[in-house]
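Appendix B, record 7
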Amino acid sequence: MTGPADQPALPTGTEDVPEAPGWAEKSVRDIFAALPTHDARIDQVRDAYLDCLAGAGRTQDLDMEHDRCRQRAITALEADGLLAATPLHDLDQRLAALEADITANL
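Structure tokens (predicted):
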């Protein structure tokens, strides 16, 4: 017989768990899908960025946390040479605009 102690704790729909708004996740996926380069490492950066945004929803300074998430993603893409300077700059600008929308819609 199994009981609650035998099962891993999983959040339910009513529990507070970090997540980015659904529309923001779709927008991030669309922004990354429009990049001129497609690489599994870019997908990993995108997913880490989304995870970071989800965790930022509980902080005092949301804009600072969003900046940190974006800069970490841009740095990872730059360090691995996955994007040239112009697409990298465009990505930075598009993500910054999305973050402003997230903040405005909270």
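Remarks on this record: Residues 1-18 have pLDDT under 50 and may be disordered. The CA atoms of residues 27 and 98 lie 8 Å apart.
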